[in-house]
Structure prediction request, 336 residues.
Amino acid sequence: MIKVGLVGYGTIGKRVADAVTLQKDMKLIGITGHSYDYKIEVAKMKGFKIFTTGDPEEFTKNGIKPEGSVEDLIDEVDVIVDATPKKIGRENKEKYYMPKKVKAIFEGGEKHETVDASFVAQCNYDESLNKNYVRVVSCNTTGLCRTLNAVNESFGIESVHATMVRRAADPWDIRHGPINSIVPVLELPSHHGPDVQTVLHDVNIFTTAMSVPTTLMHMHSLIVDLKKETTAEEVLDLFKKTTRVRVVRNAEMVRSTAEIMELAKDMGRLRGDMPEICVWEEGIGVKNKKLFYLQAIHQESDVVLENIDAIRAITGFKDGQKSIEMTNKSMGINGF
Ligand code: NAD
Prediction:
C-alpha cells in the first residue's frame, strides 16, 4: 500500500483525496486543513484524518480536533500530494518536504524548475519514475498534451497553434472574474505553449489565450500542421481510441460546455466531473496537411487522474500503461 498525505484540500486536493481512496494499492493517511470551512466538515464526515497547516485553535473551537501538524502527517506517509495555491507548493518543498526527505507531487501552479519532471501519464510516465519531486501540469496543458501526443505519434507534428478560451473562475469561486468582459492574455506565447514542451519536448507549439465569463470548462481551438496526409475520419478514429479523451457529438445535442457538464452528471460522475478531454466529432477538419479541432477541458477534474498515476510513478511502479488502466477503472473512465 502506498501511504499518501494530501496538503491543500481545495478544488483539486479534495478530488485527489477521494480518488486515492478508490485505489486498491493506496491508502489516504490524512489531509491538511489551512482554515476551517465546509470542506473540512465534509472531510470529517468522510472519516479522513485531519492535520493542520493553520491555527489549530480555529479547528478546535469549531469541534474538530486536528491529529497534528503537516510535519506529523509527513512522518506517516510515503508521498505527499501538494495541491496548495500557486507558489506555496515551492515554499512547502523547501520548508517541509526537503528537510523531511519525503517525495512530493505538485500541481500546475508551480514552475517546472521546482521539480525533477513534469507529468502527463499517457505522454511521459517514465520520466517521473522514482523521482523525488514531480509536477502534474495544469488543466489546460494536460488537455493539450493528451490530444497532441496522440496526433504526434500517428501523423507527426510540424507545428501547432492553439488558442485557449479560459473559464474565468471555478464554479464555487465568488471572488474572481471577469463577469462581463473578454480579457486577452497579452503575453505571446501564453505560458501554455512552453508548458506543453516540459512534457512533449519536441513539439513546436505557439499558444494564445483569453479569459471569458464562464465557470464550467475551458475550450481550446487547435490548428496543427501535420507531417503526414490524413483525413478527418482517421483523426476521429484516433481520438476515439485515445485514453482519457472523449468524443462528443453535436448530433447527440452536445453542443456546448454546459451540455458536457450535464452529460457528466447524467452519467453519475462524482461531483458531476468530466476528467476526459472532450473533442467534438463535428469540429474535426483536415485541409491539405492542416488539422483543425475543438476540445473542452473540465479544469476541476482532468488532472485528478494524473495525480493518481504520478503517485505510482514517483514511488516506483514501473508499468505506466497498467497504472493508467487501474486509475481509469477505479474512476469509470472510458466506459461507464
Ligand atoms: P484552491 O484554492 O481551491 O485550494 C487550495 C487549498 O489550499 C485551499 O483549501 C486552501 O485553504 C489551502 N491552502 C492555502 N494556503 C495554504 C498553505 N499555506 N498551506 C496549506 N494549505 C493551504 O486551489 P486549487 O484550484 O485546488 O489549486 C491548487 C493547485 O492546483 C494550484 O497549483 C493550481 O494552479 C492547480 N490547478 C488548479 C486547477 C483549477 O482549475 N482549480 C486546475 C488544475 C490545476
